[in-house]
Task: structure prediction
Amino acid sequence: MKSQDRRDKILVCAAQLFAAARYDEVLMEDIAREAGVAKGTLYSHFADKDALYFAVVFDGISQLNERLRAAANEDQHPEEQLRSVMLAILSYFSQNRVFFRLLSMEDAKAGPGGSESRQRWQTERSEQIDVIESVLHRGVASGDFRVPHPRLQAFVLRGMVRSVLTSGEKLSVAEMVYVLVDTFLNGARSRAHPPDAPSA
Result:
């Protein structure tokens, strides 16, 4: 197995274990066993458990942020652009439920200060707010959105993503996008009638 393939496998197995138990309950031996490698192999890729944990976190959030930037750069009407951004988020989390659980756990630890890795985490998470906020600003500039506090409302919209994903409702990704965007925009929309909901 190539070194990069082995590293990728370690990250996948580590993500599953970190999402299933508290950080201090996950041992490097457990990760090595799950990945089918020697414990020494872990340390050839990662200095310690903390480095491995944040490698998992940053790998996932980097992939997500890349999708968001691509969606926000599409040449679309602001509402469709917002739907594209929400689709990027919801489809990624739907395909990567383990990372969604990890992200939720890490968000619960959020706060000022902390280690360099946790500060980087805050920066990476803020990029998602930046992307959503930029789309809201475009909608305001075009006259399509009435969003008086774009930064704050970007946080509200991201929080709605968590609510949709943890609601227990059995919805397709397209339905989740519709519910989320329609709920968010219904009080801010200039047009009188929302579009038809997508079929299941």
